[in-house]
Amino acid sequence: MKITLSLSPAPQLETECLVAVVLDREDNARGDKDKTQPYASTADTAVQQAANDVISSGDITGKNFETSWLHKPAGLKAKRLLLVGGGKAKKFSSTDLRKLAGAAVRALKSRNLRNLAFVAPDGISTEEAVRAIVEGALVGDFDPDTYKSDRKDQKIDSLTVVATGDQNALQRALDDARVVGESQNFTRELVNEPSNRMTPTILANRARQMCQETGLKCEVYGADKIKELKMGAFWGVAQGSDEPPALIVMRYEPVGAPEKPVLGLVGKGITFDTGGISIKPADGMEKMKYDMAGGATMIGAMRAIALLKPKVKVIGIVCATENMPSGKAQKPGDIQTAMSGKTIEIINTDAEGRLVLADGLCYARQLGCTHLIDAATLTGAVVVALGYANVGVFSNDTSFYEQFSQILSKSGENMWRLPVTDEYLEMTRSSIADLMNTGGRWGGASTAAAFLKEFAEDTPWIHLDIAGTAWMEDNKPWIAKGPSGIAVRSLVEFAREFASHKP
Ligand code: BES
Ligand code: MN
Ligand code: ZN
Predict the structure, then answer these.
(1) Helical spans, DSSP H, in 38-149
(2) Ligand 3 centre distance from Cα of residue 293 (Å)
(3) Is 280 a catalytic residue?
(4) What is the per-residue pLDDT for 191?
(5) Percentages helix, strand, coil for the chain, rounded to the nearest 5?
(6) Which among 18, 253, 342, 489 could disulfide-bond with 411, CB atoms 3.0 to 4.6 Å apart, if both were Cys?
(7) Could you tell me the distance, in angstroms and rounded to a whole number, from the CA of residue 443 to the centre of ligand 3?
(8) Strand duo 435-436 + 415-417: pairing
């Protein structure tokens, strides 16, 4: 997608489709709360006038994602005017705008239109608006249709963002947003691949290629190194598969960055989770190809970080393997010794994510990471707790968590903190080893987090359980069904914040 900035007045733009946001202003003066007062959110009077015709017809009321098309709009050079409803003006934010841009792109794509110009609405700072429009449009442009032989290559050709302000600042916002949006889509591409086309080796190759393109250092280790590092928890999972595991290490070490802090991003990269000997039911098992989403998230985030160049060291680690049942597979009752020296009684081989992450977190600390964030499709229990609406966030350090949570309104990703107090750790104590890899029936997202916390030890750490959010179960107006790329934007935004306000 070609993305350009235009500072010229919207009516002058010759485009297939000009897009403007319609908001609903409550008319409090009349005390009539139900009466909608829709208006096109732009300072441009020609666009407003063109929109007024549609608005007065009642075809659009400003409700969220409502769309209305106007052909040959009077006073505009554009061939069409697409109005998209953004809800109540008072509540309208960049998060809404991002989704509207995605919705506009998807509306165009379904009509075989490939070019649009999006007018930045009022009420949001223009830089923020430009960023939201670009990110949202890129997210909306992604369709997971790679393997359809009748796929129409209906990607958007060009997006023009129409805004007024300091050209340099706006162009910078646009360029940054492109990096973020494209990195999120890169993650989605990786997650979308089925397990026969996304083995640990292939995932490592994709990471290596990305690192080469963006100037990151990349090391990929196999079974020998995993055993040499005494990663008994990671190997316990990997030993059951014929596919070789991969320990992927991506390093971003910008010149001029201080020695400390070092941010460690650790991802769960299970390219297929059968459950192992504690095998999962057949129904829905196909979805377990997305069990490497946490790893793909870190690869996408590292891509964006490499290109945006915040002044802070970041190390990305992905523990990639399949979780398979076989004659070599670990069995319930087995005891594994993790890299940290802690012993783990395997109760359920389907609780494999915490095993690979235990060694991933320990290795990150050994490599010098002073702060850790992991992302993983870790538990079904987090889906029970939060549904598809929020990422579950766990942390052992409230000030680190608060620094992270501050950027969520900027990234527009929904995340909710859940507890990881000592009670949950008690539930994972084993009578014959230090820990069990499950914590019983209840509080499964928190017991899994408590297990990980044992391996973060005293390093400030945040755990993102993305099991419910890494895959969209349905098409939404702004995003296709399939991999969501959740958490990439937040991690990138956080790395930038972390670089400017070090702890
Ligand atoms: N990969 C799954 C978690 C998952 C569930 C991801 C649903 C996406 C959607 C994880 O490895 C798993 O199997 N967890 C078990 C843990 C249990 C055995 C303690 C679970 O949640 O059932
Ligand atoms: Mn599992
Ligand atoms: Zn899993």
Answers:
(1) 45-57, 94-110, 126-141
(2) 10
(3) yes
(4) 98
(5) 40, 20, 40
(6) 489
(7) 17
(8) unpaired
Dihedral angle at the C-alpha atoms of 480, 486, 490, 495, nearest 10 degrees?
-120
Strand partners, 249: 219, 317
- Does the annotation mark 148 as catalytic? no
- For the entire predicted model, the pTM comes to 0.97
Of the listed 25, 172, 280, 476, which one is catalytic? Answer: 280
Pairing of strands 217-221, 313-323: unpaired
Angle at 253 between CA 139 and CA 500, to 5 degrees: 70
| CB 387 less than 6 A from any atom of ligand 1 | no
Rounded-to-integer distance, Cα 299 and Cα 280, Å: 27
64 is written with which tokens?
């969220």
Summarize the confidence of residues 57-74 as an average pLDDT: 93
How many residues can be counted in the chain? 503
DSSP assignment of 227-293: HHTT-HHHHHHHTT-SSPPEEEEEEE--TT--S--EEEEEEEEEEEE--TTSPPPSTTGGGGGGGGH
DSSP-assigned letter for residue 30 = G
Query: Both tokens of residue 288?
Result: 């377990």
Residue nearest to atom 3 of ligand 1 (CA): 379
Indicate if ligand 1 lies below 6 Å from the C-beta of 348: yes
Q: Exposed e or buried b for every residue in 254-285, given b needs 16+ CB within 10 A?
A: eeebeeebbbbbbbbbbbbbbbbbbeeeeeee
**R_g of the chain computed on alpha carbons:** 24
- The closest alpha carbon to 428, from 341, 342, 359, belongs to 342
pLDDT per residue as tens digits for the range 272-328: 999 999 999 999 999 999 999 999 999 999 999 999 999 999 999 999 999 999 999
Q: State whether the beta carbon of 465 lies less than 6 angstroms from ligand 1.
A: no
Note the pLDDT tens digit of each residue in 11-53. 999 999 999 999 998 765 555 555 678 999 998 999 999 999 8
- Which residue segments constitute the domains of the chain, with CATH numbers given? 2-144+154-165 (3.40.220.10), 193-498 (3.40.630.10)
Is any ligand 1 atom within 6 A of the Cβ of residue 350? yes
Q: What is the pLDDT of residue 64?
A: 94
Q: What are phi and psi of 390, to 5 degrees?
A: -140, 145
Tokens encoding 454: 């044992």
pLDDT interval class at 501 (50, 70, 90): confident
pLDDT mean over 435-453 = 97
The contacts of residue 247 (CB under 8 Å, 6+ apart) are 220, 221, 222, 225, 226, 229, 231, 234, 317, 318, 319, 320, 360, 363
Decide: 419 in ligand 1 pocket, CB within 6 A: no
